[in-house]
Amino acid sequence: MAKLKVKSGGGWPAIRYSFRMGKKAGGIFKLYRALRSSNTCKTCALGMGGVSGGMHNELGQRFQVCKKSMQAQAQDMQAGIPAEFFENTSIEDLAKFTGRDLESMGRLIQPLYLAEGATHFQVINWQDALTKLLENWQAATPDRSFFYTSGRSSMEAAFLVQLLARQWGTNNVNNCSYYCHQASGVGLAQSLGGGTSTVSLEDVRKADLVVLIGANPASNHPRLMTYLAELRRRGGRVIVINPFKEIGLQRFSVPSHMRSLFFSSEIASLYLQPHCGGDLAFLKAAAVFLWQEKRINQAFMVSHCNHFEKFLKDLESEDLQLLLEKSGISFEDLRIFCNYLIESQNTIYAWAMGITHQVHGVENVRAIANIALMLGMVGKPGAGLLPIRGHSNVQGVGTVGVVPKLKPKMADALFNKLNIRVPETLGKDTFACMQAAHNDEMDFAVLVGGNLYGANPNLKWSREALGRINFTAFLSTTLNLGHVFGHGKNSLILPVRARDEEKQTTSQESMFNFVRLSAGGQKAPADDLLSESEIFVNIGKEMFGESPIPWSKLRDHHETRKFIAQTVPQLDAIEQLDSGKEFTIRGRIKHTPNFNTENKKANLAILSVPDARPKNGEFNLMTFRSEGQFNTIVYEDEDLYRGVEHRNVVFMNEKDITSNGFHKSDWVNVESEIGEMAVELIEAPIRQGNVAMYYPEANAIIPAMLDPQSKTPAFKRTAVRISKAV
Questions:
Q1: What is the pLDDT of residues 50-87, one digit of tens each?
Q2: Same domain flag for 169 and 269
Q3: Which residues of 88-118 are buried (b: 16+ CB within 10 A; e: fewer)?
Q4: For the whole model, what pTM was predicted?
C-alpha cells in the first residue's frame, strides 16, 4: 500500500495549503479579499458567492471555500507572461513542459499567433488578432466549423457565442459536458423529463441517506463533504460505491468545524467496491432484490410511473446471482445496501463521472432513477437525484443554448423575438466534431476555455484531428497542453479576462439549478484584456451589422440577460438579476411527483446489463483525477490522498501484484488496443482485477469508445494488459 501522509481528507493539510496559495497569489490577505468579493466560485458546480458576497452559499452560510476555489483564484492572480518568453521559447520547447508547468507560467496577456510552419508563437496586437479571427471566420463555411465552450464561461458569453453561430448558419455548437455529464442529462430527461438535479442544497441537509456512486467529492468537490459530515453527525448514513477505496470518503476533517478538524468525521457507513463498469449490474441486482422482498413503494409506482408492469416482469426474469457476479459485489453487501435504502425516509442519490464515463452511461443513470422511483424517493423534500457536475457553469452554458440542437421552444423564441431562423440540421456533438476534423471536414474552430485536446481519448488521434483544422481560435486565460498539441494549421490565442475580472456583472448556474450574479471588477493582469462577450459582440457586429440582432446593444450584459429572459425557457427571472434577485430555475426541483413528461409520470427503464468482470490476463482500467487537480488542470503532481508524488503511475490491488509476479514500485507497461505506457506500480485499495491511472495523461492509451446515446467517451473501463517493463 502506498504510504499515506494523512489519515483523512481535508483538515490541517488543507489549511496549510491555503497559505501556499496565498503566497502564489501575492499574499494571503490579497487572496482572501479576492475570495471575499461578490463573485462566484470558478471551480466546481456546487456553487458559492454572488450577491451575498464571496464564500457565501444560497442558504446564507459563510466561509464556503475550499482548496479548489483557492487553486483557481491563485492561478488567475498570477502575473502576465512577458512577450520575451514567446520570442525565446519555441513550440518544440513548449512541448517539453508538463501541463502543470504551462498553467503555472502566468496569465496570457497578449494575443498570440502561430502561422502554419512557424516555430514560435508570435505576439500580435489586438487589432491584428481580431482581424485574423474575422478573416478566417468569413473564409470558412458554417458546415465545416464548430464552437466549443468550457464551464468557466459566463451565461452571457455562452448565449452570445451560440447566437452568433446560429446566425452564421451552423448547429455545430457544443460544450464540455459532452465529455462529462451528458449521460446524466440524457438519462434524467428520459426518466423524468428534465436533465438536471431534482434537489436543492437545502434538500441535502434534510436527507437521512446519501448514496454516492462513482464520485470522489473529497478530492473534486470538497465543500460537499461538509454536508456529508453533517449528515453523519445527525445520525444519517452515507453509502459509497466506488472501485477505489478513497481515504477522503472514509474520513474527512472539515476545517470549519472544530471537532471534525481535530478528530475527523466518519463519512462512509458502507463502502462497496464493484468492478469498473459494474454499477449497472449491481443497481439492477438491487432492484431485483427489492422486488423479491416486496419492499418497494408500489402505490407510488402505480400512481407516478409509466411501464410499471413491464418493468417488474423484466426484474422477475433476471438471475440475481449472475447480476452480482457481473458486478463484483457479494450478496451480503447487497442485502446491507438494500436494508439501508429501505430504512431511509429521505434518500438522495448522487453520482459523477464514474457513472457517466461508461459506454452504458445513460443506462447507469436510468438504473439509479429506477431505484429511486421504486422507493418513492423522487418528488419529495429531502430526496431525489443529484448529478454532481464538475465545472462551475457547465450546467449554465447548456441552459442558455450551447448545445447542437436547440429545443423547439427556444428555437421558436429566437425566431419570434430576434428573427433568427435556427438551422434545421442536427448539428454535431463534441466528439462528432473531432471525428469530422480527423476526416479533414473541419476548417475553422473556436475553442472557448478548457483543453479539448487533453479531454479527448486517444491523445495521438486527438492531436491529429485538431491539427488538420485550418484555423483554431482559443479564448484562454493561461497556457495549457491544448495550445501546444491541439492547435490547427494556423492558430490564434486570444487572452481573456477571468469572470471576476469582467467590467460588467455576469451570471452562472450551479448544479442545484441556482443562478447567481457575479460582480466582476477584480484587477486583470493587463488593462486591455477583452472579455469573451466583447470578442463575440465585436465579431457579430463586423459580420452581420445590427440587424436582425442589435450586436452593439448586446455589449451591455443587462441587455443580453433581457434577450436570454425572452428566448430561453424558464429563465425569465434572469432579467431581474441585477436587482439582486438570485433564483432557482423554476420547474426543476421536484418536491412533488409531478414530472416534466407528457403525462407527468416518470418512465421506468428496462435495461440490459453488461458483464464487468475482466477477462483472463486483462484488467479493467479506469482513469481518475488527483487531489491536486481540477478537470484537465493539474495544480500539484503530488496526490496527498493516494500517497504518490508523481502522476506516472498505475494503482493495483495487493493480491493482483503478488499473483502476477510483480513487486511494489516496479515499472510496468500498461497496454491497451491503441498503445502502451511505462508507469510505476503502486499498491492501492482498488477492487481486485481493476487498475487506475491519472486523467488526462492516461488518455494516451484510452481508445475512443462512446456511449451511443450521450456520445460521451468511456474513460472508466478499458481492457488492458500489464507486464514488467524491460
A1: 888 878 888 888 777 777 888 888 888 899 999 999 99
A2: no
A3: ebebeebeebebbebbbbbbbbbbbbbeeee
A4: 0.97
